Amino acid sequence: xxxxxxxxxxxxxxxxxxxxxxxxxxxxxxxxxxxxxxxxxxxxxxxxxxxxxxxxxxxxxxxxxxxxxxxxxxxxxxxxxxxxxxxxxxxxxxxxxxxxxxxxxxxxxxxxxxxxxxxxxxxxxxxxxxxxxxxxxxxxxxxxxxxxxxxxxxxxxxxxxxxxxxxx
Length: 168
Description:
The protein has 168 residues and is an alpha+beta fold. The chain is 35% helix and 24% strand. The chain folds into 2 domains: 1-45, no CATH class; 46-163, Winged helix-like DNA-binding domain superfamily/Winged helix DNA-binding domain (Arc Repressor Mutant, subunit A, Orthogonal Bundle). A 3-stranded antiparallel beta sheet has the order 5-7-6. Strands 1-2 form a two-stranded antiparallel sheet. β3 and β4 form a beta hairpin.
């Protein structure tokens, strides 16, 4: 059974067999997502979370530093996203002051793994918003492309989805 879910960011997707559990900051969290993409979106599928991860890729930052780097992000939303990312194991909060309680936030190894996905999203955005800003090959100046690759077979997987491609 397919259900149509949307957030107040106007992002809509079709998911199969999804149980809706709670709504936090307008973003619906899903308890039993049916695909790897749905599972990823349940964890990092809103605008602020991905921008937070991007800001933290360079290294640890404090709360006010994050507010300064992400225009339009309200303090209450930042606090909620940081708590959720820590609960999901994507970042750690390291206290640096007891009075008042303050922390520095750093991505875990799992959070750092999102760098590749963010590069792909940024590349896609650059190609469609302003092609002149797309990443280019230094040797010839041609815009580069991301491809699926199988290291076991040492082969590119050019056509997705295919019957011989399985997401685990």
